[in-house]
Amino acid sequence: MAEAGLPRTVGLLGAGVIGAGWAARFLLHGVDVRLFDPDPEAARKVGEVLDNARRALRRLTLAPIPAEGDLTLVSSPEETVSGCDFVIESAPEREQLKRKLLAAVDVVIEPDVVIASSTSGLLPSRLQRDMRHPERMLVGHPFNPVYLLPLVEVCAGERTSPASVERAAAVYRALGMSPLIVRKEIDGFIADRLLEALWREALWLINDDVATVSEVDDAVRLGAGLRWAAMGSFQSYRIAGGEDGMRHFLAQFGPALQWPWTKLTDVPELTDELLDRIVAQSDEQADGMGVREMERLRDDCLVAVLQALRAQDVGAGAVLARHERALLGGVPGREDGDAEDGEGRPLHRGRVQPEWVDYNGHAHESRYLQVFGDATDGLLRRLGVDAAYLDGGNSFFTVETHLSHLGEASAGDDLAVTTQLLAADEKRLHVFHRMTGGNDGTVLATAEQMLLHVDTGLGRAAPANGEVLARVRALAARHATLPLPDRAGRSIGMARPASA
Amino acid sequence: MAEAGLPRTVGLLGAGVIGAGWAARFLLHGVDVRLFDPDPEAARKVGEVLDNARRALRRLTLAPIPAEGDLTLVSSPEETVSGCDFVIESAPEREQLKRKLLAAVDVVIEPDVVIASSTSGLLPSRLQRDMRHPERMLVGHPFNPVYLLPLVEVCAGERTSPASVERAAAVYRALGMSPLIVRKEIDGFIADRLLEALWREALWLINDDVATVSEVDDAVRLGAGLRWAAMGSFQSYRIAGGEDGMRHFLAQFGPALQWPWTKLTDVPELTDELLDRIVAQSDEQADGMGVREMERLRDDCLVAVLQALRAQDVGAGAVLARHERALLGGVPGREDGDAEDGEGRPLHRGRVQPEWVDYNGHAHESRYLQVFGDATDGLLRRLGVDAAYLDGGNSFFTVETHLSHLGEASAGDDLAVTTQLLAADEKRLHVFHRMTGGNDGTVLATAEQMLLHVDTGLGRAAPANGEVLARVRALAARHATLPLPDRAGRSIGMARPASA
Fold first, then answer.
1. CA–CA separation, B460 vs A455, rounded Å?
2. Nearest CB to A262; choose among B200, B259, B498
3. What are phi and psi of A29, to 5 degrees?
4. Searching chain A, which residue's CA lies closest to the CA of residue B278?
5. Residues A379 and A350 in one domain
6. B457 pLDDT more than 90
7. CA nearest neighbour of B173 among B325, B388, B288, B341
8. pLDDT digits 0-9 by tens, B310-351
9. Are residues B112 and B165 in the same domain?
10. Are residues A165 and A202 in the same domain?
11. What is the domain extent for residue A91?
12. What ipTM was assigned to the predicted interfaces of this complex?
């Protein structure tokens, strides 16, 4: 078991977009998955979603991920749940179909195994009616793509036990998700009521030929959508209220709610003509991009947005940060092991952040030095330069740097820096860093640096002291046997004429 | 004029959250702003918004930003528009008030000056009724914070001229925004119909005690809000339809539109009790954070999300990327004045930002290279490397840098960089930068760099071409007479033993 709270084996009923997403999320957290879907193409489709999920997760986090679970496709619902300690139903949104499925598996597994439905809005009190053990049944409604979005709405039915809710919430948290407990059982729960309201209005805009699907999408993603990702609706409006906050906002924009700004009273009829129009506009927007390709683009955007919000510790970014700490805590050693030894093993790992990229599409040159600076800091920590040493009026300052750019790093690239101490005396460190990127270990850049030990009180060079000096000497002696790097000692010049 | 399309002076009527946001966006693009608002606190509030906007813009982009425009607060609407070549009305959402304002300024400025209203949903055909020159009036509806979100809905009234729409769209584009032309004049235009639909449903959820404001916000920002920022609504749903796309999605979820998942038929009455509840829940969510602080947190999130999407060249990120290329191409004027002459006069000026300072109390070493990189960009612009040149598949990449640190720069220090072209041929630039700080012109650092001209399509070195190559040769010839800097051609080494 990769983390406390996770089941050992999960049974999944249905392998559409949502079921396949659940499969990916569980498998990539080390949980074995048993899966049933009558679609003869299910294995291929799940495999494709899983490929996209692996790719997304590798970009999302540097935290240690457990070994993948095993995926088994089986041929009946009853077989699916055999030996499982958690079950999720993700069948089409038809109440009778779901009730039949739930009742069928209910009678074949231990009554303490929780069964969750992925329904977007059907009431659990109705879905659990034909079950012998309705207390174990609840709704756990996720959002597409399930392997990236942290939200899962948890809604109990009339007969659901509190223990089942707790168990399900623990499973979702262990998967890095954020369960939102729906306290009042209503159709559509919370999120889908909001989504449906927006979607219904969007359909009217198409129906009335006010806008195309592409214009509606731009109206969302170039404006309020950016705020929604960061802060949701109410908090955005609180800020829009200015110094007087929410009350002022409500006073100013409350009246508009009474104006005819939305098509309140009706639903557009999905005539063949309207369906054709939406499909044609959507095809035009997609511009030939297939669904898997579009999923990858969407995932890249979501990964980038999640990472951006993680840096702010806000919303879904805060959920991701918590999950990474949990993953790190659960797998001791790995990062420590890397830093154990500077000879050939990376002293520092990093990742190219989106904001590092300049107009050439690669990381700005100063960011390479930032990463090398982090590696130098890693070296200094290893030499015993800690807060106490700094507070005592000692530090090392870089006095010279020679950077060579040999390749290009793009947003999301993983970087590793290995560091060699070329020479040292009591006041100086002469170091050589190599930065490699990607899986193939291409050298992207090197940095040769001279650092001077300073008495920060006097503001001038002074010998390093005590344990730090001893460690400097020991490391210099060990590294003295390493070959001198090709690019060490270089100067810049144009002696040779340019080749044609 | 900082960029083609921008007015020289804009007149702003109203300095609430939206008006102040417009002021910030124009000022930071080098446009002079004349502003009227009856609020005696207007100057302070605009100043605070402007501070936050400056902070956000510095983080958003490394592209060269023109010198700030001048802000003038005046005491009447008529005085505001005097001498302006673009006018924006951002008064409260009351039709009569707006009509009166628009009619008042209409009679005092040249009829070819466009007047745009920021209204969220009032019809331009009604707003322009009392105007003598209604053809110049239209709606340009922005989104808060105006200085960061790119969306602006442009809606013409019955009597608006096509030329006015074109002029306004050009102004918005020059500000880095993305005008969405609303083809059919309807209440609420496009975006606010969608926002209002979601907001109305959210108010019902609070009213019916289904969820708190914090739960509603989480239901948005941990789920669909992340997708909305990246792709909007229709494109997300197309993907959710799986391999069968939009038609399958509509078939599967269309029926749910007929189910009672939203409160279609009514608007919750904003009773005192409901208002109090929303305000109390919002206060709890804010947890003591003031509006300016919360704005900064929101801005940091938006900046991070915009940068994340820029790396994917999607949605608002694609708009930002286009704007950066335009800024890069089109900042003659201020920076050119400085760059007029590389011999001794600074090619670049900057200031040490607080977030640049590391644990040693000085700017991090990578920030020196960031400033030198800006100076190199300044040199390249002077050599004619603009957006068109870059779009044509040409650029200069830094291949080597030798930095020498001779002093320390602290937060708030003004920096200046002078640049000497040591040598050049058709593929290479060998440059030497000197950074001085403070009033006494102490040399803080030097950077020697080798840049290679590349064909970015082929990804390899190639000769510079046309006007750029001619300018390179001319500058190299002029600089050939300058003495070689002491620190040019250095390498790093420890041949000498350290002095005691």
1. 46
2. B200
3. -105, 15
4. A246
5. yes
6. no
7. B325
8. 878 888 888 888 877 777 664 333 333 333 344 556 667 777
9. yes
10. no
11. 9-189
12. 0.72
What tens digit of pLDDT does each residue of A127-137 get?
999 999 999 99
CATH of residue A23's domain is 3.40.50.720
When CB atoms are compared, the residue of B215, B226, B283 closest to A149 is: B226
Q: How many domains does chain A have?
A: 3
List the single residue in B205, B298, B367 with the smallest CB-CB distance to A231: B298
Over chain A, what is the mean pLDDT? 85
Q: Can you name the residues that pair with A141 across neighbouring β-strands? A: A153
Question: Which stretch of A250-254, A422-426, A480-484, B321-325 has the lowest confidence by average pLDDT?
Answer: A250-254
Same-domain status, A179 and A199? no
* Nearest-by-CA chain B residue for A356: B307
- Element holding A33 (H helix, E strand): strand A32-36
Q: Given a cut of 80, is residue A122 above it in pLDDT?
A: yes
Domain final residue pick, B288, B318, B341: B288
CA distance A423 to A432: 10
Minimal C-alpha gap between A419 and chain B (Å):
16
Same domain membership, residue B444 and residue B341: yes
Chain A nearest-CA distance from B304, in A, is 5
User: Quick check: B187 pLDDT over 80?
Assistant: yes
| Tokens at B156, concatenated | 């013409």
Task: Report CB contact under 8 Å: B230, A286.
Answer: no
A239 contacts in B (CB within 8 Å)?
Answer: 144, 291, 294-295, 298
Any bridge partners for residue A156, and if so which?
A138
Quick one: A75 and A218 in the same domain? no
- Considering the domain architecture, whether residues A41 and A162 belong to the same structural domain is answered as yes
| Closest CA of chain B from A173, distance in Å | 13
Q: Is a pLDDT exceeding 80 seen at residue A431? A: yes
Are B423 and A494 in contact (CB < 8 Å)? Answer: yes
Helix, strand, coil share of chain A (percent; to 5): 45, 20, 35
Q: Are strands B414-424 and B428-437 parallel, antiparallel or unpaired?
A: antiparallel
Interchain contact, A448 vs B492, CB within 8 Å: yes
Nearest-neighbour CA in chain B from A282: distance (Å):
7
Q: Are strands B414-424 and B394-405 parallel, antiparallel or unpaired?
A: unpaired
Same domain, A447 and A406: yes
In tens, the pLDDT along A345-400 reads 676 777 787 778 777 778 888 999 988 988 888 888 889 888 788 888 899 999 99
- Distance CA(A359)–CA(A64), nearest Å, equals 33
Task: List the single residue in A238, A306, A364 with the smallest CB-CB distance to B373.
Answer: A364
Q: Taking all residues of chain B, what is their mean pLDDT, rounded to a whole number?
A: 85
